[in-house]
Amino acid sequence: MGAPKDPKAHDEAAPSQESSLPPxxxxxxxxxxxxxxxxxxxxxxxxxxCFSDCRRFCISFWCPCVTFGQxxxxxxxxxxxxxxxxxxYFLIAWLTGCACxxxxxxxxxxxxxxxxxxxxxxxxAIHCCCEACALTQEYRELQNRGFxxxxxxxxxxxxxxxxxAMAPMPPVAPVVEDGMKR
Length: 182
What we know:
Elements: H1 7-19, H2 54-62, H3 64-75, H4 82-96, H5 100-114, H6 120-129, H7 131-144, H8 153-162
Helix pairs in contact: 2-3, 2-7, 3-4, 3-5, 3-7, 5-6, 5-7, 6-7
Region (Disordered): 1-26
Transmembrane segments: 87-105
Organism: Rhodamnia argentea
């Protein structure tokens, strides 16, 4: 056995050895700041407020493909048409009886788009248990955000851009000028 080492000698040598060590290896995992957390808002109306708009609820109950088509056109920002999505909804309902699986995805998309509280499981359960109430709530949500789903994407955006908050004007008959005559 050798002579005991002086502890001070070890401490003095340690800093010089640490400085000569290579830096730790790069792992490839970047260190970034955590993403911003956005506040999620509740739906502007309750699910059971569907009876406050009996007309829309009846349309959603008896012919949900109409309401769904109108909602999907707005949620897709005009990329798909009301008629096409309504027809797809109808075919899925007719062939499988489970069109709620299709409309559920649009509820998810709408919630993400407008940062609305909820969960995928809850959305699916709502569409499976009460499709008409879910569609009516989504329709009202779009109305409360300034869209008129019954008009379609282009007309709704045009009205928002013009700031129109009045009823549509009746069509005006064309003016016929005197010109060529037989």
